[in-house]
Amino acid sequence: MERRLTKRQERFIEEYLFDFNITQAAVRAGYSKVHAGRIGHENLQKVHIQSAIGNRQKQLVVSSGVTPERVVKELTKLAFLEIDELFDAEWNIKNSAQVPEQVKAAITSVSKTTSPSGNTTVKVTLINKLGAIEALGRVLGIFTPDKNRDNDRDLITALREGRERVAKR
Fold first, then answer.
1. Distance from C-alpha of 2 to C-alpha of 48, rounded to nearest angstrom
2. 61-78, pLDDT tens digit by residue?
3. What is the mean pLDDT of residues 160-166?
4. Cα-based distances in Å from 84 to 71, 81, 107, 133, 166
5. Is the domain of 77 the same as that of 159?
6. Do 140 and 112 belong together in one domain?
7. CB atoms within 10 A of CB 30
8. Where is 109: in which H helix or E strand?
């Protein structure tokens, strides 16, 4: 017989799935701030709560239309973004219509400033490519405790080669 969740446990699950912060999820669910970290950790050890978290994650996958395959495809786009697709041959930023969707997806912000002398500067901020590579590696099981040392060396080599490739353009 499966144990029923209390209202507070249900709230903890929803809050935990929001940001995966155990302590803050417990506080937002109404547990004591003093004991929130311990209680949150205890909650995650309970089989019926683990099961409810898994079920809720499955519901979110279905209702959002986000599949593991889609996540992997998006992470792949971000991880292996070619920055030169944002620029023309003279390294000027391309018109928005000329920038591939893959590159647009990696842009987190764009700001344009004009100096008193009339010079315009456009600043484009992109996602953390290394973070996307690491997330992709975790999702695909590439970065496991027994493999990390070799993969770190391979990752550093790949990043150096990519930097050299961009510098040659």
1. 7
2. 888 888 888 888 888 888
3. 70
4. 24, 9, 13, 18, 7
5. yes
6. yes
7. 12
8. strand 107-114
Residues 53 and 95 in one domain: no
**Structural tokens at position 62:** 């279905």
- Side-chain-facing half-sphere of 26: CA atoms under 13 Å: 16
Mean of pLDDT values over 108-117: 92
Domain encompassing residue 56 = 7-64
Distance CA 81, CA 145 (A): 27
What is this structure's pTM? 0.53
- Collapsing DSSP to helix, strand or coil, 126 comes out as strand
CA distance 43 to 24: 13
Domain total of the chain: 2
**Assign residue 30 a region: left if phi > 0, alpha if psi is -120 to 50, beta otherwise?**
left
| CA 94 to centroid of chain Cα atoms | 26
Helix (H, G, I), strand (E, B) or coil at 116: coil
76 and 140 in a single domain? The answer is yes
CATH classification at residue 31: 1.10.10.1400
The reply to whether 149 and 97 lie within a common domain is yes
Region 127-131 average pLDDT? 88
pLDDT, tens digit, for every residue of 31-42? Answer: 999 999 999 999
| 3-state SS assignment for residue 58 | helix
